[in-house]
Amino acid sequence: MLAFEGVSFSYPGALRPALEDINLTLSPGEFVVIMGANGSGKSTLVRLANGLLRPTKGRVSVEGWDTAADEHLPHIRPLVGMVFQDPDNQLVAATVEEDVAFGPENLGLAPEAIRRRVEEALSTLDLAELRQRPPHRLSGGQKQKAALAGILAMEPRYVLLDEATAMLDPASREEVWSIVSSLCRKKGLGIILVTHLPEEAALADRVVILHRGRILREGKPREIFSRPEELTTLGLEAPVAAVLAGRLARRGLPLPPGLLTPREVALALRELAEKRPPDTRRKAGRRRRG
User: Fold this and answer.
1) What is the CATH architecture assignment of 2-234?
2) H or E segment at 90?
3) Nearest Cα residue to 147 out of 129, 164, 130
4) Do 168 and 144 form a contact (C-beta atoms < 8 A)?
5) Which residue has the higher pLDDT, 272 or 131?
6) Please, what is the average pLDDT of the chain?
7) Comparing 187 with 53, which gets the higher pLDDT?
8) Ramachandran region, residue 188 (left: φ > 0; alpha: ψ -120 to 50; beta: rest)
9) Domain ranges in the chain?
10) CB–CB of 131/99 below 8 Å?
11) In which element (H, E) is residue 186 found?
12) Model's pTM, two decimal places?
């Protein structure tokens, strides 16, 4: 388990803590999204999770290893992988294949083990055909997948993604969403995704809302997005489908609460239409044609 226990953190010279009294856990196979306005402490939290930063107060541990203990860091770093917003900051080798192999090589693994990990990571991210391509010739989505492949080749138990889809086009973003969700479900990885996009948060097991360095709300996506007006006051948004469903409900349509995706809204509307008496549907059709 990755655990924050009463964690606070202050940057030198700051007027207030970046994080204050954070209590949070992440288990293998769990997908947690962190949301919050700019300056709420999201990026600080994930940097504390793998020892890039150390808490001013409290304890961060990974499988029992304390991130504040220098002697524990060699055990922690292979367990926690991190993908940043700009993949160019992580791609260091001449080809995709060499870049994916970089992490396992630094672990001192045997050549056969390195090859196995590289092949598996390239296959998982659908990058096998791009193995000899220089990273600078990849698209934005391909670069982010290559960065993620390099993390997967380390075989971590937890993956932290800090606004990792923010620079991607919608199609590439959806592809990365699908991959991350699959890694969590099929490989049992614990995922923390920092994002400002509510559609990404809708995929999570839990959503955590940070506000001025504190956890303001925590719960399942349907709970968090059930009151979109509260999110607006925090500078956040609910998924577009949830907002649409709320507006339709206020206009009198008896939609169930907690609809998050376009598919869920469409299915709910279809079910309502099928429940209407046939003569009502015919009258509605005549009015539209008129």
Assistant:
1) 3-Layer(aba) Sandwich (3.40)
2) none
3) 164
4) yes
5) 131
6) 88
7) 53
8) left
9) 2-234, 243-289
10) no
11) helix 170-187
12) 0.83
